[in-house]
Amino acid sequence: GSAAAPLPEEDCMKLNPSFLGIALSSLLAIDLWASKRLGVCAGENSAWGSARPLMKVIEVSGHGIPWLLGTFCGLCQSDSSAAREVLLNLLFALLLDLVLVAVLKGLVKRRRPTHNKMDMFVTISVDKYSFPSGHATRAALVCRFLLRHLVLAVPLRVLVVLWALIVSISRVMLGRHNMTDVLFGLVLGYALYSVVEYCWLSPLSVPALFALW
Questions:
Q1: How do the pLDDT tens digits run along the chain, 213 residues long?
Q2: How many Cα atoms are found within 13 Å in the side-chain-facing hemisphere of 141?
Q3: pTM
Q4: d(CA 182, CA 59)
Q5: HSE value, Cβ hemisphere, 13 Å, CA-based, for 157
Q6: Cis amide prior to 66 (ω within 30 degrees)
Q7: What's CA 111's distance to the chain center, in Å?
Q8: Concatenated DSSP letters for the chain?
Q9: How many CB atoms lie within 10 A of CB 159?
């Protein structure tokens, strides 16, 4: 019989997946497997289920609402122009973080791990998605901000860094996120601080805004 016609180029590509595609699929599988293994506080019956209440307290410490309310209250009560400038920029950083994370979650739409219990503290619609971790992003951002703009003794600086790391690790332990969600969140938050510094709000750059306070 006649020889079979050659497959179109696009079909050949589908039948022969690229090395990059295989590598990414493998990394995703490893990420899901390791994240599930590390979700030791995902439920009361998990390996470290007794530590779950403590992990949930840590979860609240990295949530956006306490940070926003605390920063806004401090801004309203501050009687120092230098303190108001720092607090106003921290408020700007927190709002920028919330918007950026919400946009990325809505675009990527990666579901939370299957072993996660949906009992999170104050969620909105995009919080059903997990990439990136907003807690990790906020922790890295706030950590850099505080270390740069507050005069802290060395033990306190160490505690700030430890807090950011513990908040990030707790996201995987609670089963809220996969490891890649947290790692990307840390990188994003670290980079986002540079944007805040570049767009720093001051009485010279935005006098009308400072006139409100």
A1: 555 555 454 444 455 567 778 888 888 899 899 999 999 998 888 889 899 999 999 999 999 999 999 999 998 898 888 889 999 999 999 999 999 999 999 999 999 998 888 888 777 778 889 999 999 999 999 999 999 999 899 999 999 999 999 999 999 999 999 999 999 999 999 999 999 999 999 888 888 777 776
A2: 33
A3: 0.85
A4: 13
A5: 10
A6: no
A7: 15
A8: -PPPPPPPHHHHHHHS--HHHHHHHHHHHHHHHHHHHH-TTSSTTSTTGGGHHHHHHHHHHT-HHHHHHHHHHHHHH---HHHHHHHHHHHHHHHHHHHHHHHHHHHH-PBPPTT--S--SS--GGGGB-SS-HHHHHHHHHHHHHHHHS---HHHHHHHHHHHHHHHHHHHHTTSS-HHHHHHHHHHHHHHHHHHHHT---TTT-HHHHHT-
A9: 12
User: Could you identify the residue written with the tokens 């219990």?
Assistant: 117
Catalytic residue status for 135:
yes
- 205's tokens: 């750059």
Cα 41 to Cα 118: distance, rounded to the nearest angstrom: 13
**Under a CB-based contact definition with an 8 Å cutoff, are residues 91 and 73 in contact?**
no
- Token pair for 56: 């949930």
Tokens of 29: 């599988």
Length of the chain: 213
